[in-house]
Amino acid sequence: MQVSTKFTIAIHILALTDYMDGKDKVTSDLLSSSIGCNPVIVRNLMGALKKAGLINVKRGPGGITITRPLDQITFLDVYNAVETNKESLFNFHEDVNPDCPVGRNIHGALDDKLQEIQKMFESDLKKFYVLDVVKDIRDEIAHEDQSSEV
């Protein structure tokens, strides 16, 4: 099972947008500099977040804004917004040997279990909020600031 980096980049986008609120305009260039990736990737993910109703994007002097409080944006909201291959977390190997007793029965033995795992995964994503991440980041920044004063 693997979730692409789109998910963590999208969380990063939301966290930095919140952090910069009132300090500086949030642009794809600022985001890509913080994330360490190409601005095109950031713009594509911003489009997905906008389509999902999680952010607004205003060209020119506007920048990015978050559309609702971070304690109302779950990890599942973000996952659903940016992951394009979420129908199945698990990819099955192709071309099993039908002459092999395991090969011809592996799908039947695994499919329902993998579907149940995916349901649990998505249910667990509902338990976490972007605000949880932002609070941890702010705590770390405050700790860094205190450490640098000593």
From TrEMBL:
Full protein name: Rrf2 family transcriptional regulator
UniProt xrefs under InterPro entries: Tscrpt_reg_Rrf2, WH-like_DNA-bd_sf, WH_DNA-bd_sf
Domain of life: Bacteria
Originating species: Baileyella intestinalis
A Pfam family this chain is assigned to: Rrf2
MF GO annotations: DNA-binding transcription factor activity
Any one GO CC term of the record: cytosol
